[in-house]
Amino acid sequence: MADEDVILDETELHFDLGEDTADAEEDLHINLDLSGDEDEDEAAADIELNFGAEEEAAEAADQLAAEDEVEAVRAEIRSELETKIGDWYVVHTYSGMEKRVKQNLDSRVKTLNMEDYIYEIVVPTEDVVEIRNGTKKTVTRTVLPGYVLVRMDLTDDSWSAVRHTPSVTGFVGHANDPVPLGMDEVVEMLLPAALALKNEKEGGKTPRAKKVELVDFQVGDSVMLTDGPFTGVHATITEINTRTSRLKATLEFMGRDTPVDLTLDQVQKV
Q1: pTM of this prediction?
Q2: pLDDT tens per residue across span 100-112
Q3: How many Cβ atoms sit within 10 Å of the Cβ of residue 241?
Q4: Which residue did the predictor score with more confidence, 138 or 187?
């Protein structure tokens, strides 16, 4: 009987081990269920991608709206120009004297009684957002530095009135027989100012983004990093993103050219 008892004990021990195996299988099953976390990660990744697509779609919609607005303003300018008499000529001036030339020519037209020949003097301008020392400021500047547009009927007297205006160096084209601009050329020169005026009237709600220029830095400039792990290292600017106020540069690290992405307050010009 003692032997039988031993056998029974071993049998029980055997069954106990079997139960442990079943538990191990259950544990294995639980581990396999953890793969569901990967599915959740993939789903999260899909959601993130969808958000990016929505942002891109919004930017594309804004771009289309801006293009439509530009086309509408361009059409308005053309329609208005077609009703005006005279041809448009480009007059060359000393640099920085465009507004002074306009004032002088306006006065000479009245003094010389040339109103029936010289109808309009325009200095094409545009609004530009300048970033200087990290601060954004909107400024108005000339589209064509050193040039003024004049709408006129060209005669010997009208030519002389314009040509002999102080700070005028001559007409663009043939000296004594200048060639007038085409309609498309005039429209494009007047377009920036017209868009700026429309934006002002609408309280800055126009979807068209202004031209942005970074005054402090240019591509190719040498700068020194003032923040981060490369503080004190010199780098060369390779790209400037005025929309995000960031720039890309390359620096030498362990004998290799290493690209870095920086904010404007992380660098100073050298």
Answers
A1: 0.59
A2: 999 999 999 999 9
A3: 12
A4: 187
What are the pLDDT digits (tens) for 62-72?
Answer: 566 677 788 99
Q: Are 150 and 91 contacting, i.e. CB atoms less than 8 angstroms apart?
A: yes
How far from 242 is each of 35, 66, 212, 262, CA to CA, in Å? 44, 18, 6, 12
Tell me if 124 sits within 8 A of 189, measured CB to CB. Answer: yes
Q: Where do you find CATH 2.30.30.30 in the chain?
A: 216-269
Measuring CA to CA, which residue among 128, 124, 125, 140 is closest to residue 209?
A: 128
Q: Which residues contact 124 (CB under 8 A, 6 or more apart)?
A: 142, 143, 144, 147, 149, 189, 190, 192, 193
85-207 belongs to which homologous superfamily? NusG, N-terminal domain (3.30.70.940)
CATH topology of domain 216-269: SH3 type barrels. (2.30.30)
Instruction: Fill in the amino acid letter for 215.
Output: V
Whether the CB-CB separation of 89 and 150 falls below 8 Å is answered with yes
Q: How far from 228 is each of 100, 224, 244, CA to CA, in Å?
A: 49, 11, 19
